[in-house]
Specification:
Layout: H1 9-22, H2 26-46, H3 71-80
Length: about 80
Amino acid sequence: MRLTIHLDDDLMRAVQRLALETGTTVTSVITESLRERLQRHRHRTSNPPAPLSLVTTGEGGLRPGVHLDDSATLFELMEDGG
């Protein structure tokens, strides 16, 4: 497929330099770069990071009524010295 794109001058010079150094074409450098970027994106979206698990220490765990996913209540308890 033919496509017209606009690249910054410094980026285009870097692409041309890489094509010369590797004995390939500008089209090949751009195509390979886009494929690598798309692959990284697919990998990141298909493998989201594992959920974070919090480990509590000490005796008895959390106080009754304290929920770690309720930050507003946690802040109130910390400010009140609760």
